[in-house]
Amino acid sequence: MTDARTKRAQTLNAAAKAKSQAKTKAAEQALRTLIKRGETITFQAVQREAGVSHAFLYNHPDLSGRIERLRSQARPFPAPAAPADAESTLVLTLTNRITRLKKQHREEVQALQNALEQAHGENLNLRRELARRGLPRAALAETE
Question: What gap in Å lies between CA 20 and CA 15, rounded to an integer?
Fold first, then answer.
């Protein structure tokens, strides 16, 4: 009985170790990917990219130290603030454009719905005409 228990414990330990190694590898790959893309390195970015938890990253000193080093190195200088007028003009322009695009989208959707209703009506009329001419039901089923 103890041999089976020992074997199970060894198997579970091996599985946990393999899972931890896979997560470590995924986190390292995420770091390389983020660096390659030029994105800011943060615990959250690495966690999201690698699909691991924050706790996993914080509990691995090698990973957390590397993330903190890269995060501190990559702190960009703050961009000069745009004048408030330029910012509000940009926001207003984008808001107007979004409003126009939403209206255009609604009109296109309505036109497509109208065309679909018309096609359904024509299809129904054609089926009725075929039935009136005496086409067998089996042939009608094949046309559907």
Answer: 9
